[in-house]
């Protein structure tokens, strides 16, 4: 681009001009084109041009839309004055010389400009002028400005001046245009950089905000990032409830839970779906008792939080000062409002799910309690009958009652398991953690399993490591070991050998229950810890069971900060389960 003025010179009608004139103009072209700062270019055009055409004063104006802006004026004595004044084009309509230059796109010469039509502040200066040359600054066939050179002496501009003046106007037009384009390009690049930076900030903020786990922290972080990006002094996030908003989050936690009426301008803003800028009165009105909370702030930027076409809340930024928010702030708040809306919606969903879970667990607890009472009564009567409390029983009746008693016991076990599930899932099962000796927990569990072990002629061995101690809830550990031993005794097709052992494993103690029973197929291994899930082996399905034992045991282990896993298993060869719990220091 910088080469263009030189190209113009090559094509210019300068042939025949004295060599030094050409030299001076080439020098000037290079000089003028050497800068891309519009002010610098204007200064060089005026300084070099005024001398080159032997004028006493040069004035450069730009044509912007339907206005003329007088940029600067330069006097031969060496002073350059920046003017920056805007005038309507009408002023120049009254100047035939200007009109002629602009319409013909050619330099126009004449006596001084019409005094009575000139802007009052120029009249004084114009009074001294004898001769004037008006040069249109043309680019792409359009006038983008003009240069006016004046001579104070009786030395008119002549046809001899036309060639250098035409050249000067071409050089100046191009140089000015280049500088303006460069300036626009720079501004556009700057805007693009700013937008990119804002987007990056929004992505950063989204990552940062989403990395918080608790809702109040998530919203707090969102407000923090949004305020910083918008340059706000205060901020709040509210959910909408009918004709009110309820504050969900503020940076200090102040006002959370308070209700505010929705003012008409807010309602209008919400329905437009766009960010609106409001005064304190327009945003909050003056709800009684809340004036002091709004008092520090004069201006608010309010973004509706919308998801799926529904506005569910408001994100508001507040400023203590009176000056309006930066337009970039409006754009950046729009991005934060999208994030805010999603967070608020997710928070609602999570809360609803939690409430539903809670309700379900409560229902299950009540239902199981109601079930257990009659089962206990029935079980009691059956025991009494079988013990002969109601007289000698015929064999056939005894058989039936024995089956009924077994089934009642199974039903009680199921009811107990369901109750534990309900408590575990309702998060009402809090472990009472203490120091537990592994030996105690294991020997007691083995003792409880003894009757069943004898029934199936099992051998239960306690291996080493039982002098270790764990930090756990003794009753919970007992329940887990009962489940594991019970399964080991149940899922075997011949009298099983069961080994219970313990060993220190870093900060944890690993308790293992290994059997040589039927094992678990690879396909079942991935499912057995799920709720109500049982193995698919025929030997499993023909035995009674709920598919809750491992699910519950793992839940209990996790409640105590431990874990329960199937360490290894092979169909037909047996299984080893490992329960890991925090070790208690000696
Ligand atoms: P349930 O015993 O009531 O079926 P569990 O949750 O205790 O429920 O066990 C789930 C399934 O895991 C069992 O149905 C069985 O298929 C398998 N399983 C558990 N322990 C063993 C074991 N020691 N040997 C073989 N299979 C087992």
Summarize the structure.
The protein has 586 residues and is α+β, with helices and mostly antiparallel strands.
Written overview of the protein:
With 586 residues, the chain is α+β, with helices and mostly antiparallel strands. The protein contains 18 helices and 19 strands. A six-stranded antiparallel beta sheet has the order 3-2-1-6-5-4, sandwiched between helices. The protein has a six-stranded antiparallel beta sheet with strand order 9-8-7-12-11-10, with helices on both faces. Strands 14-16-17-19-18 form a five-stranded mixed beta sheet. Residues 483, 487-488, 491, 515, 517-520, 524, 528, 534-535, 540, 545-551, 575 line the site of adenosine-5'-diphosphate.
Layout of helices and strands:
Elements: H1 4-11, H2 19-33, H3 38-52, E1 57-64, E2 67-75, E3 80-88, H4 90-93, H5 96-104, E4 108-111, H6 120-127, E5 131-139, E6 142-151, H7 159-210, H8 215-230, E7 234-241, E8 244-249, E9 259-261, H9 264-272, E10 276-279, H10 280-284, H11 291-294, E11 299-307, E12 310-319, H12 327-386, H13 395-425, E13 434-437, H14 438-455, E14 459-462, E15 469-472, H15 474-490, E16 497-505, E17 508-515, H16 522-525, H17 538-541, H18 549-559, E18 563-570, E19 574-582
Parallel strand pairs: 14-16
Antiparallel strand pairs: 1-2, 1-6, 2-3, 4-5, 5-6, 7-8, 7-12, 8-9, 10-11, 11-12, 13-15, 16-17, 17-19, 18-19
Helix pairs in contact: 1-7, 2-3, 2-7, 3-7, 7-8, 7-12, 8-12, 12-13, 13-18, 14-15, 15-18
The structure holds adenosine-5'-diphosphate.
């Amino acid at each position: 681009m910088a080469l263009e003025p030189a190209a113009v010179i090559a094509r210019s009608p300068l042939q025949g001009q004295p060599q030094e004139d050409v030299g001076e103009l080439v020098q000037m072209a290079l000089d003028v084109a050497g800068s891309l700062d519009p002010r610098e270019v204007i200064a060089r055009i005026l300084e070099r041009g005024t001398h080159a055409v032997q004028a006493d004063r040069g004035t450069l104006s730009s044509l912007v839309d339907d206005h003329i802006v007088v940029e600067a004026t330069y006097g031969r004595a060496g002073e350059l004055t920046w003017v920056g004044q805007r005038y309507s084009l009408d002023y120049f309509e009254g100047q035939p010389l200007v009109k002629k230059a602009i319409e013909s796109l050619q330099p126009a010469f004449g006596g001084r400009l019409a005094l009575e039509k000139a802007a009052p502040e120029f009249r004084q200066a114009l009074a001294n002028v004898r001769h004037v040359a008006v040069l249109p600054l043309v680019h792409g066939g359009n006038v983008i400005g003009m240069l006016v050179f004046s001579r104070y002496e009786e030395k008119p501009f002549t046809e001899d001046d036309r060639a250098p003046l035409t050249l000067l106007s071409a050089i100046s037009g191009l140089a000015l245009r280049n500088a303006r384009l460069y300036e626009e390009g720079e501004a556009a690049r700057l805007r693009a950089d700013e937008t990119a930076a804002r987007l990056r900030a929004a992505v950063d903020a989204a990552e940062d905000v989403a990395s918080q786990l608790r809702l109040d922290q998530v919203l707090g972080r969102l407000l923090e990032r949004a305020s910083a990006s918008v340059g706000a002094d205060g901020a709040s996030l509210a959910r909408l409830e009918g004709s009110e908003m309820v504050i969900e989050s503020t940076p200090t936690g102040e006002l959370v839970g308070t209700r505010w009426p929705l003012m008409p301008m807010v309602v209008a803003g919400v329905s437009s779906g766009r960010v609106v800028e409001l005064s304190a009165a327009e945003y909050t009105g003056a709800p009684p008792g809340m004036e002091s909370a709004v008092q520090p702030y004069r201006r608010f930027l309010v973004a509706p939080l919308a998801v799926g076409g529904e506005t569910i809340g408001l994100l508001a930024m507040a400023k203590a000062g009176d000056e309006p928010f930066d337009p970039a702030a409006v754009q950046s708040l729009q991005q934060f409002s999208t994030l805010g809306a999603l967070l608020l919606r997710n928070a609602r969903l999570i809360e609803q799910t939690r409430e539903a879970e809670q309700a379900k667990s409560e229902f299950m607890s009540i239902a199981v309690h109601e079930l257990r009472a009659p089962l206990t009564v029935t079980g009691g009567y059956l025991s009494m009958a079988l013990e002969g409390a109601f007289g000698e029983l015929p064999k056939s009746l005894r058989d039936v009652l024995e089956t009924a008693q077994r089934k009642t016991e199974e039903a009680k076990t199921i009811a107990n398991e369901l109750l534990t599930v309900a408590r575990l899932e309702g998060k009402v099962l809090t472990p009472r953690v203490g120091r537990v000796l592994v030996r105690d927990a294991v020997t007691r569990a083995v003792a409880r399993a003894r009757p069943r072990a004898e029934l199936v002629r099992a051998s239960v061995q306690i291996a080493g490591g039982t002098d270790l101690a764990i930090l756990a809830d003794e009753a919970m550990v007992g329940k887990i070991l009962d489940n594991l031993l019970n399964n080991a005794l149940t899922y075997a097709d011949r009298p099983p050998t069961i080994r219970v052992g313990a060993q220190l494993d870093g900060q944890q103690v690993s308790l293992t229950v290994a059997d040589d029973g039927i094992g678990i197929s690879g396909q079942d291994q991935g499912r057995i810890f799920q709720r109500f899930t049982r193995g698919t082996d025929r030997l499993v399905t023909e035995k009674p069971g709920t598919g809750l034992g491992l699910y519950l045991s793992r839940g209990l282990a996790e409640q105590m900060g431990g874990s329960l896993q199937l360490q290894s298993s092979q169909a037909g060869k047996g299984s080893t389960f490992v329960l890991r719990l925090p070790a208690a220091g000696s």
